[in-house]
């Protein structure tokens, strides 16, 4: 698990696909445990707070707080949606141009699904998408999340006939293996919890994507990461 940035307040890492965000009943590897090992011996009283989550099969930038004060500051930013979250997503089918998807998501029985706007438990889900490259009946999208609902990108994409590559749970026809799907949190921009600056963290998709990408798609990925113009230390 690569370290993208580290100081006494924040740890930013690149979560591999297939790794849990936090421990569960399976005992499988999780971000918190791996991050703790990265910091082992560097802090006499280690604190790690998970302030946002990525689905297990997804990958990408994950930020953890190293103090309780930083955890409160960062959590507030996610809650108030002042952070910027961008994803690189490879979907089945062809899309061109750009647009906005708006739906409503509820979690009856702990299973996220799209519901009608009048559903009593439905929460508005909004994202902006842009097609970066299309080939072999697949499209590489850059997605900016405006809300953060469970399985939001996966549900909204598959409902329009474009399941995320490797997402067999939601109807994808192909598998990436390694408990992975082609959904990568490529950029996170937020305010540092202790300094008056905006931090940008970036990372490229994991190697498991390699067989699904064309040269045009690889070029597009490099371009969007190069254009991120980070204002603080980052990795891509």
Could you explain the architecture of this structure?
The protein has one domain: 2-Layer Sandwich (Pseudouridine synthase), CATH 3.30.2350.10. The protein is built from 4 helices and 11 strands. The radius of gyration is 18 Å and the shape is globular. The chain is of the alpha+beta class and 236 residues long. Residues 230-236 have low confidence and may be disordered.
CATH structural class: Alpha Beta
Count of individual beta strands: 11
Q: What fold name goes in the CATH topology slot?
A: Pseudouridine synthase
* Helix residue percentage: 10-25%
Stretches with pLDDT under 50, minimum 5 residues: 230-236
Strand content: 25-35%
Number of helical elements: 4
User: How would you characterize the largest beta sheet?
Assistant: 11 strands, mixed
Shape: globular
Number of domains: 1
The overall pLDDT, averaged over residues, is 92
Q: How far apart, in Å, are the first and last alpha carbons?
A: 14 Å
What Rg is obtained from the alpha carbons, in whole angstroms?
18 Å
> What's the helix-strand series?
EEHEEHEEEEEHEEH
Query: What is the structural class?
Result: alpha+beta
Mind telling me which CATH architecture this is? 2-Layer Sandwich
């Amino acid at each position: 698990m690569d370290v993208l940035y580290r100081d006494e307040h924040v740890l930013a890492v690149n979560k591999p696909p297939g790794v849990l965000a936090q421990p569960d009943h399976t005992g499988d590897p999780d971000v918190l445990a791996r991050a703790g090992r990265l910091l082992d011996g560097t802090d006499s009283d280690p604190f790690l707070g998970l302030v946002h989550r990525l689905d297990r099969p997804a990958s990408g930038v994950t930020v953890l707080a190293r103090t309780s004060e930083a955890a409160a500051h960062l959590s507030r930013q996610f809650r108030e949606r002042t952070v910027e979250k961008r994803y690189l997503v490879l979907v089945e089918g062809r899309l061109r141009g750009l647009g906005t998807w708006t739906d409503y998501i509820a979690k009856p029985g702990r299973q996220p699904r799209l519901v009608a706007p009048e559903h009593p438990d439905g929460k508005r889900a909004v994202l902006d998408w842009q097609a970066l490259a299309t080939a072999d009946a697949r499209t590489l999208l850059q997605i900016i999340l405006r809300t953060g609902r469970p399985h939001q990108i996966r549900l909204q994409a598959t409902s329009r006939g474009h399941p995320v590559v490797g997402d067999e749970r939601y109807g994808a026809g192909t598998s990436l293996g390694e408990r992975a799907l082609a959904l990568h949190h490529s950029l996170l921009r937020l305010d540092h919890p202790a300094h008056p600056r905006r931090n940008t963290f970036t990372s490229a998709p994991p190697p498991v994507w390699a067989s699904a990408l064309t040269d045009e798609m690889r070029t597009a990925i490099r371009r969007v990461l190069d254009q991120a113009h980070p204002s603080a230390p980052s990795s891509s």
